Amino acid sequence: MAPPVPQAGVRTAATAVDPALLRRAERLYRELHAHPELSGAERDTADRFAAALEAAGCAVTTGVGGYGVVGVLANGPGPTVLLRAELDALPVAEATGLPYASTATGVDADGRTVPVMHACGHDLHLAAVAGAVARLAAARSAWRGTVLALGQPAEETLRGAAAVLGDGLYDRFGRPDLVLAQHAAPLPAGMVAHGAGPMTAGSVTLEVTVAGRGGHAAMPHLCVDPVVIAANIVVQAQAIVSRQVSPAEQVALTVGTLRAGGHPGVIAEQAVLGVTIRSLSDVTLDRILGAMMRTIHACCEAAGSPREPEIRVVSRAPAYRADPATTAAVRAAHERAFGPERIAWWPSSLASEDFPLLVADGIPSSYWMLGVVGPRQWRAAPGTGAAEKLGHLPTNHSPAFAPDVALALPAGVEALVAAARTRLAREAA
Q1: Which of 178, 242, 249, 331 fits a 20 to 30 Å CA distance from 321?
Q2: How far apart are CA 46 and CA 36, in angstroms?
């Protein structure tokens, strides 16, 4: 059955947020969307988010783990709830045609100037957290405790959560009793989806440098060709998933980049591969990683590579498994806020997040998907069910990804407030 499509103008709990508050949140969203910044370079984004938190009454600290921002909204003794959103954007050239579309550029890790876009909804997440904090600040009589608003840097590189934790996030601001986050998804705007079991995959990203012996392409017998070695690694790696992992497990191994040489008549000195491994099981992830290491070394040895391959772990994040008790409580709160018909189940995904690092020590948590597709766009997408329509809608990381802010933002604000009140509400004491 197709999910219900919220209509603009229909008054639900999500659209009953104070209009002035929503205007401020939407203005922040548009500013963030028009001025995105790459991972590790989120200076202006952090400043805008910090200013919004200060305007809501938070005590704000910047420069946490890089450009991380922490806002503290204290309201007497009680539990501490952390609302997390991400600061960074992606190297994508925007093609939405929006009046506030990004024309920004940035410098990537290789020193190249690239287009930058908020193609994953992080701007929406930030605006929703700012709106939720403002809403809680305006209703202090209904709750007690402390709200921490975290603007986390470098999520797209899976380095930001570790950075803010390494900079003493919980030592400096207190260990939260509950950590909450949401993520934009190609579902009807006004809907929320929760998961059961593993929601996001554990992942490892590798940079592999294969050594060769360069020379003239007319004399390959006097050289060791690193491109051939790298190509063999790519081919042999495919057998890891197909022959060393159970078909019942969800895994993916991708060689996403291969860089070598600068001239077709020259055999290069080295080749560099970028590899990502994903699994819903951290045990399986370790097993695949070990198999990949063996494959790389074997291919290099077989070809007579003059040096051992250099294998660098660029980033790593564990799988995120939904916290059953907390998920049930937050899902029930969302059903009360939005109506049961607007709450769905979300299947496991091989997308990765560093959010699990924030709750790795057993801190209760809830992470849900927030629908962002407007009614007209949803109806126009071919297909009768959600699965069919999703294949025709711009997904996260697409140049055409454009949330319906009028519906998705108030829903995001309400979803965070309702979830936070499961621990902060005075009657929950």
Answers
A1: 242
A2: 11
pLDDT, one tens digit per residue, over 146-188 is 999 999 999 999 999 999 999 999 999 999 999 999 999 999 9
Q: Which run of H or E residues covers position 40?
A: none
Phi-psi group of 154: left, alpha or beta (phi > 0 → left; psi -120 to 50 → alpha; rest → beta): left
Is the CATH number 3.30.70.360 carried by domain 202-317?
yes
CATH number of 13-200+319-428: 3.40.630.10
**Residue 218: strand, helix, or coil:** coil
Work out the mean pLDDT of the chain and round it to a whole number. 95
Give the type of residue at 19. Answer: P
- Do 13-200+319-428 and 202-317 come out as alike in CATH topology? no
For the stretch 266-285, what's the b/e string if a residue is b when 16 or more beta carbons lie within 10 angstroms of its beta carbon? ebbbbbbbebbbbbbbbebb
Closest CA to 132 of 114, 115, 150, 159: 150
Sequence-distant contacts of 295-302: CB under 8 A, at least 24 apart:
295/233, 295/236, 295/237, 295/240, 296/208, 296/210, 296/233, 298/236, 299/229, 299/232, 299/233, 299/236, 300/210, 300/211, 300/229, 302/232
- Confirm whether pTM is higher than 0.90: yes
Contact, 357 vs 319, CB < 8 A? no
What gap in Å lies between CA 162 and CA 6, rounded to an integer?
A: 37
Burial class of 221 by CB neighbour count within 10 A (0 to 12, 13 to 18, 19+): exposed
Sorted by where each begins, the domain ranges of the chain are 13-200+319-428, 202-317
Angle between helices 43-55 and 19-34 in degrees, nearest 10:
170
pLDDT, one tens digit per residue, over 239-278 is: 999 999 999 999 999 999 999 999 999 999 999 999 999 9
Position 2 scores a pLDDT of 45
Q: Which of 39, 17, 6 is nearest to 128 (CA)?
A: 17
